[in-house]
Amino acid sequence: MTRSSPPRRGEEGGASVWLLAVGLVLVLLAAGMATAGAASVTRHRAEAAADFAALAGAAQVLSGAAAACARATTVATANGAKLTVCRLDYYDVIVTVRVAMPGPFARFGAATATSRAGPA
Questions:
Q1: Which of 71, 74, 80, 111 fits 46 for a cystine, CB–CB 3.0-4.6 Å?
Q2: pLDDT tens by residue, the chain, 120 residues
Q3: How far apart are CA 119 and CA 82, in angstroms?
Q4: How does strand 82-89 pair with strand 92-100?
């Protein structure tokens, strides 16, 4: 009959520490991926809002800069964006919008996008 040796002191719970470390790494990886995903979605929303605002402004360009920018502001706001720049370059409307990241990701900043549209 063989006798087993008693466990060495200081080795109990080592697997628990490794499990916690791996779990922490996985949580941090998931948080990073969620942040990157939120940033990507916010960037796409900003680009779409800028495109729509520029097109709407271009439809009003013959009425003047005030009318074109007012329409662009309305459309940008309806798309969840804030119009930060609106100007006319001859018959082209150039707009820049800003979209804040959602929820807890807002502290990472906002996405901006610029678009230009004019008559065909």
A1: 111
A2: 667 766 666 667 778 889 999 999 999 999 989 888 888 999 999 999 999 999 999 999 999 999 999 999 999 999 999 999 999 999 999 999 999 988 887 788 899 999 999 876
A3: 24
A4: antiparallel
Domain boundaries, the chain: 15-117
Q: How many residues does the chain have?
A: 120
SS3 52: helix
Cα distances (angstroms) measured from residue 93 to each of 11, 24, 45, 63, 79:
70, 49, 19, 12, 18
d(CA 74, CA 106): 23
